[in-house]
Amino acid sequence: MKFEILINLISSSMLMCLIWLVQVLHYPSFRFIDQANFALFESFHTRSISFIVMPLMLIELFTSGLLFFKAPQNLLLSISFVSVILIWVSTFYFSIPCHQKLSLGYDRQVIEKLINTNWPRTILWSLKFLLSVLLIKGVSYERL
Predict the structure, then answer these.
(1) Which of 21, 47, 60, 141 could form a disulfide with 11 if both were Cys (CB 3.0 to 4.6 A apart)?
(2) What is the DSSP code (8-state) at residue 107?
C-alpha cells in the first residue's frame, strides 16, 4: 500500500504544480494571443498538454481509487478520492467545453470562463496534494 501512496503523491504533486502554472500564467496568457492565430494556438495547446496531463490524471485516478477501495473507512483516502472525482467532473463539465469553444477561435468571454471555472480544480488539486503528503508522512498508516 505504501507504493501506491507514493505513486499517488508523485502524480498529485505534478498535477498540483501544473495546475497552478496553468491557472496563474498559461490561461491568463490566452488573453494576449493574436486572434488570427488563436484557433491554431488552441489546437496546439490542447494536443500538447493532453500528453502531459492525461497520463498523470489517469494514474492519480487509478491509485486514488485503489487506495480508497482498499481502506474505505479511512477519512483521508475518502476525501482524497472524492477530490479526484470532483476534479474529473469539473474537467469534463467546464474545462473541456471551454476548450472546444476556443478551438473555433478567440472568445474573451470563454477565456474568462475558463480561467474562473479552473479555480475549483486548482483548489481541489492543492487539497489532494496536501492529503497525499499527510498520507505519505504516515498520519493514517495505522488505519490502513
Answers:
(1) 60
(2) -
Q: Say how many C-beta atoms besides its own lie within 10 A of residue 47's C-beta.
A: 9
The answer to whether the CB of 128 falls within 8 A of the CB of 80 is yes
CA distance linking residue 62 with residue 115, whole number of Å: 27
d(CA 143, CA 68): 12
pTM, entire model: 0.92
pLDDT at 137: 84
Spatial separation of the C-alpha atoms in residues 25 and 105, rounded to whole Å: 20
Question: Residue ranges of the chain with pLDDT lower than 70?
Answer: 139-144
Q: pLDDT tens digits, residue range 35-47?
A: 999 999 999 999 9
Q: List all residues 6 or more positions away from 133 whose beta carbon is below 8 Å from its beta carbon.
A: 9
C-alpha dihedral over 116, 121, 125, 126, to 10 degrees? 30
